[in-house]
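Hey, resending since the last one bounced:
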Amino acid sequence: MRHIVAKAGDVMIGHGHPIVVQTMCNTHTADIEASVAQCIRLHEAGAQMIRLTVPGMREVEALREIRDRLRAEGIGTPLVADVHFSSEIAIAAAEVVEKVRINPGNFHHNHEQAKLQFSRLVQVCRRRGTAIRIGLNHGSLGQRITDLYGNTPLAMKEAAAEWLDMCQENDFYNVVVSLKASNTIVMVEAYRLLYEEMKRRGIIFPLHLGVTEAGNGDAGRMKSATGIAALLSEGIGDTIRVSLTEDPANEVPVARHIADRFDGRLHSTMTAVKIENREVKATYSAPSREILLLDMACDFGRRLLDREIDGISIGGEYMITGKDGQPAPVSLEGTEEAAYLCDELMQAARRRFYRPEYIACPGCGRTMYSLEATFNEVKRRTAHLKGMVIAVMGCIVNGPGEMADADWGYVGEGNGKVSIYRGKNPVMRHVPENEAIDCLLKLIEEAEAQNEASA
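The structure tokens again:
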């Protein structure tokens, strides 16, 4: 078996190397001052790789300046250009940064031209030592692939395998692959299928893991840890990003904990476990609430996804800082909080839905509105819609495709306007931001009333 190791700057990604933790700026890349400041903060938080969106040639030049300023500060953290819809921008960005992410679904609308453009990109990357991430997302696979295989984990695997063939045809191996989805079952199945395909072929490329559009708070952390840990526990995955609709610095310690668990630097804070009739009772002694919920997902997420167990309850304690500044225990025995955390894990593994399911991108330089505040308000006002899937997406570039599982979607257009989607179809466009949530709620209520009337 041949194991490929990719190299971005001084960072090695792949077999025999520690799991690499990365994140992404949510600044506008053309705002050089803000982007440099955020990169410095993310570096200090422990990010080993930092991605920035590159929607146009102006951002390529901004990226060059960002890179130069960071290197002048002694910060060598590899930068990754995130490119959609323009192979020419990807080729230009490859001259500037250590790694370029392309999405096969939108690299070029014509597949034959995409192969030619990819060869050009490879030539630049080979000369410059730039790595490539072939980054597929569920919902933005491109019509040619979905016409053949549907919008499925199989389609994701087939698309990735096709582009890995193109890498080998070009004798280029400085490559990482990702197959992200907001649905943890789809995400895990897609990576497993690709990993088995690579094993069958006898060549294992490094894999970048992530649950895309995971949202924020407890739910975003548990969903991310459930999907990522399920794969890492099987030896699948070499670099990870936890995508949260929050300050990107918040992503880093979450990803670091998951990476340290599966690199063997940390162990679970679970102190006892009992399984009867496929029901788990686990006891924890965790140093914080966040570590508790991450360990729960790392310990039992895969087993819930694979239906090896059917439920979980927890006891024990976690620590908080008391009024005197000293650590103080919080008991979990028989508490509402313990039940809530178990509900969140069941929902993350898509075994039981006790509230709406939310899809929300983390935001990036393409986002033109206050994404986190809007998402929190949407969650507050839709909390009663149990089982419904609602998406809040930062921009029109990938939002409509990547919220493929959503019943309803709120998608930023820019210039203070929003599009509202029902499924994959826009039902209202150019809605002023200050009216958009009201419009979304009204449309949902009308649809629910129609469903009841026709039932």
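The longest helix spans residues 433-454.

Sorry for the duplicate.
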